[in-house]
Amino acid sequence: MALTYQVNAVGKLDTTSSLNPKQNVSMTSEKVSVLCGEEDEALEYDDDEYDLEAFSDADLSCEDRAPGFSDSMNGVVKPRILLMGLRRSGKSSIQKVVFHKMSPSETLFLESTNKICREDVSSSSFVSFQIWDFPGQIDFFDPTFDYEMIFRGTGALIFVIDSQDNYVEALSRLHLTVTRAYKVNPDISFEVFIHKVDGLSDDHKIEKQRDIHKRTNTDLTDAGLEQIHLSFYLTSIYDHSIFEAFSKVVQKLIPQLPTLENLLNIFISNSGIEKAFLFDVGSKIYIATDSSPVDMQTYELCCDMIDVVIDISCIYGMPNVEAGLPHDKDSMAIIHLNNTTVIYLKEVTKFLAMVCFLRKESFARKGLIDYNFHCFKKAIQEVFDVRVKVQQTRKLLNQRRWSKLTLTSGVCSSTH
């Protein structure tokens, strides 16, 4: 497909465009306030013992924050994602391709994992969590392992099944893992990656997924655990399916997801946009999208556009930028497809970017779109600022309560 693109690596956003007052379609602060209402209410603690207003804004802010809210998740407990499955099922390859930008062909030379690998995904990405990669040969239900500790702090459990291998043993291990994990932490999101489907025909893929889904649910029903919900994904590191699957997993760990979706719905309805994604640029995971269905081809075009922007910015962008981040929060790109569709990318922060799909005639109102984007950007800033303040306030409250308990126990010990 022939693409003509315009890239402005460091262009400044102009929010002073003169708009027709009759076109009352821009997002208003009242709408944002309604959408952020739940987070605002969370700040109101009924605790007379602690004066929360005694803490200044500096006490509630994150350390080393980048401009905007790109590092909003610092200083809070990060959700944990467990990668489990039998040996050679592709767990480490998934992690390397998604979060380390390793070429799929290079994963053929990866050595088999022989110990639990923990990785903190937050240094060069907006999404913030821990990934624990478990070797397939380790029996973590052995008495020497504290599996309750492992599952207690877990947000999502991804079980990888090799679709090109005999998966009877894998389904048995999956059932054992899910049932024990659910008893420890019923809030875990259970995700099943039916992996390595690139060598299968479409009919064979559907047949594999239907068979695994049926067997798994039958085993859970027989065990009286039909309330456990499993999500199934067909994945491969040789296409974008693994990125889309990981996007769905990560979205379940983002408490602000409903608010982000509402903001995107308001943005596209008031801007004449057909589809919009909010991407984590480093991993090409979309953390939110509007309520319309996601088309795989559309998602692939978004990933390709992000690659184009990063490549162009590496060549023509700013010379003095942070390592691994050739773009900045003012970067933008426009790609005109040969079917009158325009793809419009604008950086929200150095980690986040919005990718929009719209018709050529709608793009003629670019000034309106940019103004609405400016309102959207401010709304997201407010959402994550409120979230950070809530988490920081709770952390301060816990520290005070812990100090009080420690002091009380010390006084009791001295009296005895």
UniProtKB/TrEMBL annotation:
<dbReference type="GO" id="GO:0005525">
    <property type="term" value="F:GTP binding"/>
</dbReference>
<dbReference type="GO" id="GO:0010507">
    <property type="term" value="P:negative regulation of autophagy"/>
</dbReference>
<keyword id="KW-0472">Membrane</keyword>
<dbReference type="GO" id="GO:0046982">
    <property type="term" value="F:protein heterodimerization activity"/>
</dbReference>
<comment type="function">
    <text>Guanine nucleotide-binding protein that plays a crucial role in the cellular response to amino acid availability through regulation of the mTORC1 signaling cascade.</text>
</comment>
<dbReference type="GO" id="GO:0051020">
    <property type="term" value="F:GTPase binding"/>
</dbReference>
<keyword id="KW-0547">Nucleotide-binding</keyword>
<comment type="similarity">
    <text>Belongs to the GTR/RAG GTP-binding protein family.</text>
</comment>
<dbReference type="Pfam" id="PF04670">
    <property type="entry name" value="Gtr1_RagA"/>
</dbReference>
<protein>
    <recommendedName>
        <fullName>Ras-related GTP-binding protein</fullName>
    </recommendedName>
</protein>
<dbReference type="InterPro" id="IPR027417">
    <property type="entry name" value="P-loop_NTPase"/>
</dbReference>
<keyword id="KW-0342">GTP-binding</keyword>
<dbReference type="GO" id="GO:0005654">
    <property type="term" value="C:nucleoplasm"/>
</dbReference>
<dbReference type="GO" id="GO:0003924">
    <property type="term" value="F:GTPase activity"/>
</dbReference>
<keyword id="KW-0539">Nucleus</keyword>
<dbReference type="GO" id="GO:1904263">
    <property type="term" value="P:positive regulation of TORC1 signaling"/>
</dbReference>
<dbReference type="GO" id="GO:0071230">
    <property type="term" value="P:cellular response to amino acid stimulus"/>
</dbReference>
<dbReference type="GO" id="GO:0005765">
    <property type="term" value="C:lysosomal membrane"/>
</dbReference>
<dbReference type="GO" id="GO:0005829">
    <property type="term" value="C:cytosol"/>
</dbReference>
<keyword id="KW-0963">Cytoplasm</keyword>
<dbReference type="GO" id="GO:0060090">
    <property type="term" value="F:molecular adaptor activity"/>
</dbReference>
<dbReference type="GO" id="GO:1990131">
    <property type="term" value="C:Gtr1-Gtr2 GTPase complex"/>
</dbReference>
<dbReference type="InterPro" id="IPR039400">
    <property type="entry name" value="RagC/D"/>
</dbReference>
<dbReference type="InterPro" id="IPR006762">
    <property type="entry name" value="Gtr1_RagA"/>
</dbReference>
<dbReference type="GO" id="GO:0034198">
    <property type="term" value="P:cellular response to amino acid starvation"/>
</dbReference>
<keyword id="KW-0458">Lysosome</keyword>
<dbReference type="GO" id="GO:0019003">
    <property type="term" value="F:GDP binding"/>
</dbReference>
<keyword id="KW-0378">Hydrolase</keyword>
